Amino acid sequence: MTTILKTENLTIRFGGHIAVDHINFEMPENQFKSIIGPNGAGKTTFFNLISGELKPTEGKVYFKDEDMIRFSSVDRTRKGLGRSFQITNVFPNLSVLENVRIAVQSKEKIRYQMIRHISKYTSLSQKAEELLGLVRLYSKKHVIASQLSHGEKRKLEIAMLLALDTEVLLLDEPTAGMSLEEVPAILEVIRRIKEQGNKTILLIEHKMDMILDLSDSIMVLFNGKVLADGTPIEIMQNEMVQNAYLGGLYDEHIAKS
Ligand SMILES: Nc1ncnc2c1ncn2[C@@H]1O[C@H](COP(=O)(O)OP(=O)(O)OP(=O)(O)O)[C@@H](O)[C@H]1O
Where in this chain does the record put each ABC transporter domain (predicted)? Predict the structure, then answer.
């Protein structure tokens, strides 16, 4: 399997605190990996280092064997390393379709003046509509983004990330802040993207059922270090992970199945 993303001794210190501590990580292409760990374990900081929002104190990030350290997060996205948009990146006063169309347009590097040509405009809209279909938001395409529910906004962020057509998707807690009823819909969206088979997906999540169901592998962080990395079954059975983090979850899971 080809490694698409790799870190070597990736480390960041905030004052005296080491939030990410010499992480060596390898991500095979088109795989689905989840990152779990207790609050403060360093998961989001690890993502920020990969996406370029933070510079490491030490260590390297490689995307397709290219050292990413000198590249900004915008440059990394252009190269194919994409981080999900935060709700704050969505234009609240534009429609759902317009938001996705802008993301498609930015990927295709088409400036506003160039889309006066109607066929160009139509092809951008078609691509945006396809993505809205994929994330099950097509019926809301004319709704103003600020009117969407929280769960729908998260789906919009995913559509905007897909519009950039990056090979790697970094999804940081896509179900955060959602009501219980909204969770299955986002799970379905992520499953559909996985089933297309052409994206490498790295997911931070706390919802164990979701992680066990979707992941090819799971990395467990604890105090900024990798505590374990393996298949869902290996992680659930790992005694160290049990003691440090999962507690009785594995027994509960067995009892349920
Ligand atoms: N910019 C910062 N300045 C100082 N400390 C920071 C900064 N960012 C993160 N930290 C600290 O680094 C540690 C790791 O934080 P991080 O947010 O990465 O954890 P996490 O595993 O994502 O947690 P959660 O599950 O709660 O989101 C925490 O102790 C946090 O307080």
Answer: 5-248
Is 252 a member of any domain? yes
**Structure pTM?**
0.87
CATH number at residue 232: 3.40.50.300
Instruction: Give a yes or no: residue 212 inside a domain.
Output: yes
What residue's CA is closest to ligand 1, atom 27?
39
Model pLDDT for residues 153-174, shown as the tens digit of each residue: 989 999 999 998 899 999 999 8
Provide ipTM, 2 decimals: 0.93
Whose C-alpha lies nearest to ligand 1, atom 26?
39
- Asked whether 45 lines ligand 1 (CB < 6 A), one says yes
Q: State if residue 44 touches ligand 1 by the CB under 6 angstroms criterion.
A: yes
Distances (CA, A) of 205 to 37, 71, 74, 109, 175: 9, 27, 24, 32, 8
